[in-house]
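#struct-pred

JT: dropping the chains for the assembly here, can someone run the whole complex?
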Amino acid sequence: MRILLVGAGGVGSAFAAIAARRDFFETIVVADYSLERAEKAAATDSRYVAARIDASSEDAVAALCREHGITHVMNAVDPVFNMPIFNGAFAAGADYLDMAMSLSKPHPEAPYEKTGVKLGDEQFAVAGDWESSGRLALVGIGVEPGLSDVFARYAADHLFSEIDELGTRDGANLVVTDDEGNEIFAPSFSMWTTIEECLNPPVIWQDGDWHTTPPFSEPEVFDFPEGIGPVECVNVEHEEVLLMPRWVDCKRATFKYGLGDEFINILKVLHTLGLDSTEKVRVKGVEVSPRDVVAAVLPDPATVGPRMKGKTCAGLWVTGKGKDGAARSTYLYHVVDNEWTMQEYGHQCVVWQTAINPVVALELLSRGTWQGAGVLGPEAFDAVPFLDLLTEYGSPWGIKEL
Amino acid sequence: MRILLVGAGGVGSAFAAIAARRDFFETIVVADYSLERAEKAAATDSRYVAARIDASSEDAVAALCREHGITHVMNAVDPVFNMPIFNGAFAAGADYLDMAMSLSKPHPEAPYEKTGVKLGDEQFAVAGDWESSGRLALVGIGVEPGLSDVFARYAADHLFSEIDELGTRDGANLVVTDDEGNEIFAPSFSMWTTIEECLNPPVIWQDGDWHTTPPFSEPEVFDFPEGIGPVECVNVEHEEVLLMPRWVDCKRATFKYGLGDEFINILKVLHTLGLDSTEKVRVKGVEVSPRDVVAAVLPDPATVGPRMKGKTCAGLWVTGKGKDGAARSTYLYHVVDNEWTMQEYGHQCVVWQTAINPVVALELLSRGTWQGAGVLGPEAFDAVPFLDLLTEYGSPWGIKEL
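RK: done, full complex below.
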């Protein structure tokens, strides 16, 4: 297995650090728009090679694949670049993995009721080409989407006879402090992307079809395990809702993000003022996008790890009937402590938790334990070997009846 | 009387429109950094002349005064330019009026407990020079500071024998709608200045001295008259607190601004994110001040008049003992309806209400009813002729026992 890792940002660098401890692959070409960043991440392991890449160019992706005899392209950049990387991998005859799917476009007339272009639509549109070529695009194989989808398949196969709702629930109790120890506002994930996913119309699967709602709909306090506790969660547009119903039978699929009151309020204010906009405005002789300014004034999420404390939880709340036919309500989850990831890997917990899952998936693909062709989500594969290998990596998952 | 009006923005243009109906002056030179803007405001009246001015240059201000034989300089620009205009007027032997005082600087060690450089300190520092030259600087003669200070003098002279608190309270029920009639967030006053005054440490006069508090301190719901109703008010740094105790005996002086929950929340979020900062940040190859970006994405306050509905109220809540020695609690106020100012003057109510007061003051100075030398606040003069003339202008004040 020869891997091209596109993107040496927070998640890409953590991927490189995790993979460095495994022996299932021959090489990883670590490619980034910044060669310096690629070189820094590539320095982790002697099997790694650094390269510069323009991820917006399908031809550049294909050329780099051919140059290095790449068998698997691992996409770890902003989903805005998904299609050129996805198409470039296909053109070069490589398999492909990503952790977020091609972007959505709201419905032009009823954005908060009907779906427009859905997450992943562009990728699923060419699934037939991938299948007939015998090539695999494993989409959405981070932690959410990714591990959450593995949980869905596990629940359907081993825990439930009938599923009412597959409800992904994500929450954390992370706190970032400044040099004086005062708590500061510093998102642990890209603010640009957080604004994108939180202000897009959330999508819900219900009774055989998808529909949308206004942002921040159906607020709910979910009590997260392992000391994280209750966090205010709201509907957010996320890939799980688009992936799970394609392979797992369920009446309803939702994604609720534990933003917490403060973060929800901040996002609402940014939207009220128009500071979420990506359209450039003229400010004293220069032109800037307000959303870029918001991202620029906040600390870089890749740098907050050492000043962050707490745990993050990704999980799936499944309701329905158990194998015995009785009502069942179960939360399958994965909790990571920032202190542990910083000490063990030198990467903060949110990017680390995202990055471990594609490493596990690639190892299963290299073993032939997972195999397939087409554009497939994680729930298209057997969940058990994935969960076992995740535990073997030293990061076990949990289960709790609610 | 020959007036130099420095600034043809929202307040300056409204000043020109109000003064155009009065005959107490010979000419007004309307000067702005933008000659086009000056010409537009000067077109109101045949006695007006337009000029270009750099308000940051004391020499330019003095030269323009000399060129036009100016007797009174009316400062209607951002208070950041106060000192060059104030000094330029003095150099040219003219009297001076402004509607906001020289800026403060927080205490370096205890910004939320002690005052540093206070509003007006730079101007009061040279009060002796103005007095010995027989020249008058009438500072803070807008609506707040301005009319509120006149109310303080009126209360002391005619209503109270002993004053506990002089509490300026400002509130409105203004609503701005977009082209489709949906309510939008659009401040009726400069967002840059609003951030400045709301996030600076609020100042309070108490038992013979000034001290500061954290922003948004001592929230209080004040019930404003004439249908405006209850609005959440908080302490804000404002000139009244620095002016009133110099001339009017009181135990305490405060300024609370009826920002309302939504606006307070917005300001807090901007501060949390660092978007209130005036220091430039680098954003994708350009440098901008975050606060300038916030101001740029919002509608220009000078243009919202036609899409605005509601009333604005400026007033002073006085508590203590009445002339009869019994406990008294009285609100003296001035309410303006945006519909009326737009129809009568073509200017929105907030800038109009600010601008009418210096016109009244200049008319009293031209008559010799008000006279004085030094750096003086509005409370240094007899309030009755001012309030009578304000009423004669068609904009009466009110009084209410609380």
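JT: nice. Residues 2-138 of chain A form a domain with the Rossmann fold fold (CATH 3.40.50.720). The two ends of chain A are 41 Å apart (CA to CA).
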